[in-house]
Amino acid sequence: MRIKICGITTVRDAVIAESLGADAIGVVVCSESQRNVTLKRAREIFSALKPTTEKILVTNTKSYPELELMMAQRPDAVQITHPFEFRKRPPVRIIRAVKPGMKELSGDCDAFIIDGSMGKGMVFDRNFASGFINRTEKPVFLAGGLSPENVGEAVRMMNPYGVDVSSGVEKSPGIKDRKKMSEFIRICREA
Hints:
Elements: E1 2-5, H1 11-20, E2 24-28, H2 39-47, E3 54-59, H3 64-72, E4 77-80, E5 93-98, E6 111-114, H4 126-135, E7 140-142, H5 151-158, E8 162-165, E9 170-172, E10 175-176, H6 178-190
Parallel strand pairs: 1-2, 1-8, 2-3, 3-4, 4-5, 5-6, 6-7, 7-8
Antiparallel strand pairs: 9-10
């Protein structure tokens, strides 16, 4: 199972998450979020990571020019919430965020992330998550209110391709807690 630590705002937290066993690091850009950083900061964070750690830019922008600018940074993937349509294959992998009540999204992506929380710590909808995971053949990440306290049960019940955590492993918005990250990753590996 893949583990993504999202909402990283510092090089230090990214390197710690990687050293603890995170498979992917998510950095929020071009968004109205307490965890938003500049593209320059995102490059600094990603450049401190090993080549094997997946680097994902996360955004809720509705601007295609901003999306193009993010893709030009050449992260491993860009995670989007807006239903952008692509005429040709994007230069990076695309992860589409889905949540209950959302209009069915295009399958022109490489993976989905179930995330009705958007970094606010609201627990995911189990019925929606289970149904969505069973409906698609694409990899599905589970997010929304995950923490060391509930991720083991969520993984056992949903069997997602991966999990994504942000606020559930923080001291304060954008500042990660080493102990919580370590515990989250350990529980995921054991589940």
